[in-house]
Design brief:
Pfam families: TRAM_LAG1_CLN8. By secondary structure, the chain is mainly α. Helices cover about 80% and strands about 0% of the residues.
Length: about 230
């Protein structure tokens, strides 16, 4: 029984409790009251993005050896951060499954399934922790994606704050999402001889799924916020 699974379970419970209490911490504005669960869900996701994105940056700063060995190096803090993220994605998966119709959430459910499998391998095997931490850099952009959703739900589209967030969102999308996924795909290709076939297959399938999904989302953001 891996201690990492205890961190996953604790993270799941913590994010579940946070989700339940968020409506009192951040009351929804009148425009969001018809969809209270979504308001709570986005704020929970924002909390995870701040924690995991900031944690990933701190991990590479505090443990520079991670960037040299993405497979075997697994500092306890970095390993725990990946396990915490698995707990969050499980909680978000359950939250969407219980509160949203399948045809509205299948893309995110599919995305979460891929992430849970890939990160779960890193947690259980104590390998590829550095690679998972690179993937968590994507969450830096997710901070601004979630802020965008919050501003939309609060009916603050025609504000300077929304316009500023849109620009930062697009910039961080290119740097921390598209470029990061491209770098990860390149790393997998260059290191295919050093990665076991099963793990290589999971990673390749994951990248093959994530890349088009993120390009489509980028196009939607561009069309919605800049070419409307």
């Amino acid at each position: 029984f891996s201690p990492g699974l205890l961190v996953v379970a604790g993270s799941f419970a913590a994010f579940r409790l946070l989700n339940r209490g968020l409506e009192r911490l951040v009351p929804p504005p009148p425009s969001a009251r018809r969809n209270r669960w979504k308001w709570r869900n986005i704020w929970t996701s924002l909390a995870h993005s701040v924690l995991s994105g900031g944690g990933a940056l701190a991990g590479f700063y505090l443990h520079p050896e991670l960037s040299k060995d993405l497979v075997g190096t697994h500092p306890p803090g970095a390993h725990s951060l990946v396990a915490v993220s698995v707990g969050y994605f499980l909680e978000d998966f359950v939250d969407m499954l219980c509160n949203q119709k399948l045809h509205q959430s299948w893309e995110l459910l599919f995305h979460h399934s891929v992430v849970i499998v890939c990160f779960g391998i890193a947690v259980l095997l104590h390998q590829y922790v550095g690679f998972a931490l690179v993937a968590l850099l994507v969450e830096i952009n997710s901070i601004f994606l979630h802020l965008r959703q919050i501003l939309l739900m609060a009916n603050l589209v025609h504000t300077t704050c929304y316009r500023l967030n849109s620009v930062i969102n697009l910039g961080t999308y290119v740097v921390f999402r598209i470029a990061t996924l491209a770098w990860m795909t390149r790393w997998l290709f260059l290191n295919r001889q050093n990665v076991p076939p099963a793990t290589y297959a999971v990673g390749t399938v994951g990248m093959a799924i994530m890349t088009p999904m993120n390009i489509i989302l980028f196009y939607r953001l561009l069309r919605s916020d800049f070419f409307k």
